[in-house]
From TrEMBL:
Belongs to the OXA1/ALB3/YidC family. Type 1 subfamily. Residues 267-281, 289-303 have a biased composition (Basic and acidic residues). The chain crosses the membrane at residues 12-31, 43-63, 108-129, 172-191, 216-240. InterPro entries: YidC/ALB3/OXA1/COX18, YidC/Oxa/ALB_C, YidC_ALB_C. It is a multi-pass membrane protein. Residues 305-315 have a biased composition (Polar residues). Residues 263-326 are annotated as: Disordered. It comes from the Bacteria. It is found in: Cell membrane; Membrane. Residues 316-326 have a biased composition (Basic residues). It comes from Nocardioides hwasunensis. This is Membrane protein insertase YidC. Keywords: Cell membrane, Chaperone, Membrane, Protein transport, Transmembrane, Transmembrane helix, Transport. Required for the insertion and/or proper folding and/or complex formation of integral membrane proteins into the membrane. Involved in integration of membrane proteins that insert both dependently and independently of the Sec translocase complex, as well as at least some lipoproteins. Aids folding of multispanning membrane proteins.
């Protein structure tokens, strides 16, 4: 039975080994033209290159994640209305909530896609590095010679790329570098989640179930990475830390330039747009819209105040009296 599952696992991981090793070895060969092929820095920079390629490939999913997160925030008032209306009927509540998600084009699981898709790649890199260090085992395009080189590569001639905090054998240098990378990975995970909550969530979405879920992730994910990170090789910690930094920068750009309506980021963008428009003597789209609404309201008030007074009809006696006066 174990052999069966091992065969299935190998069949699933083999394509990932080839994909990950193809990019990793490609960067290594390019860097080896002017760097030491066996040097730890060469392999670390190859891992950084692998990270950048993977994150670039995941940009469409990241955009989908941002849109889904934004929609989830904006529909929270409607979700709360459904909870008040159908709180007594869980089945009806689930049906109406899913209908709301469908009508608004929201996928509640889209926010997890980038991290879920990275996990198999993360695992493939972990096993490639771990097995290269322990058994000098080759995977994919990482042949035996490169696997041996990869497993024995060291930074500063004393800190192996395959070293971990737990298995440092008392070597302070390995423990210090691993601890710094674990802290960096944990801090960037926390700051990325906090950036999303503090800048790109409207005030009325901060008290709903979605906000509670985000708050839980804000504190749980860093703890998970901190606890698990002490067993990760330094090369794998480099991958995840660089990936988190990419996410922070990418998310900062999206939030700054395309924030969700009614959020602090949207207010900040409107202020920047107003300042730029004032320098150029122009008006922002928001200002033009405000003026249009104000003009329509003023026109409506003027129309109401200028209602015509219909002349009263005179009786026959009044008309006769008026003629005599003339």
């Amino acid at each position: 039975m174990l052999d069966f599952f091992g065969t299935i696992g190998g069949a699933i991981m083999t394509p990932l080994y080839y994909a990950v090793s193809f990019v990793l070895v490609g960067f290594h060969r390019a860097l080896s033209t002017f760097m030491d092929p066996a040097g730890g820095l060469t392999w670390v920079l190859s891992i950084v290159g692998l990270t950048l390629v993977i994150r670039t490939a995941l940009i469409p999913l990241f955009v989908k994640q941002i849109k889904s997160s934004r929609n989830m925030q904006l529909i929270q008032p409607k979700v709360r209305e459904l909870q008040k209306k159908y709180g007594h009927d869980r089945e009806k509540l689930a049906q109406e909530t899913m209908k709301l998600y469908k009508d608004s084009g929201t996928n509640p699981f889209a926010s997890c896609l980038p991290i879920l898709l990275q996990m198999p790649i993360f695992l493939a890199l972990f096993r490639m590095l771990d097995q290269a260090a322990r058994k000098e085992k080759a995977h994919g395009f990482l042949d035996e010679g490169l696997a041996k080189q990869f497993g024995q590569a060291s930074l500063f001639d004393r800190i192996p790329v395959s070293g971990t905090f737990l298995n440092a054998d008392g070597q302070v240098g390995i423990m210090v570098v691993a601890a710094i990378l674990v802290l960096g990975m944990t801090a960037t995970t926390f700051l990325t989640q906090r950036q999303l909550m503090s800048k790109n969530m409207p005030a009325d979405a901060l008290s709903g179930p979605y906000a509670q879920q985000q708050k839980m992730l804000l504190y749980v994910l860093p703890v998970v990475f901190a606890v698990g990170g002490v067993a990760f090789p330094i090369g794998v910690l480099v991958y995840w830390t660089v990936s988190n930094l990419w996410t922070m920068c990418q998310q900062f750009y999206v939030i700054r330039n395309n924030p969700a309506p009614g959020t602090p980021a949207a207010e900040a963008k409107e202020q920047r747009d107003r300042a730029k428009a004032e320098k150029k003597g122009l008006k922002t789209p928001a200002q033009l819209e405000e003026e249009r609404i104000a003009a329509e309201a003023e026109a409506k008030r003027a129309e109401q105040s200028q209602t015509r007074v219909q002349p009263q009809r005179q009786t026959k006696a009044q008309r006769t009296k008026s003629k005599k006066k003339r």
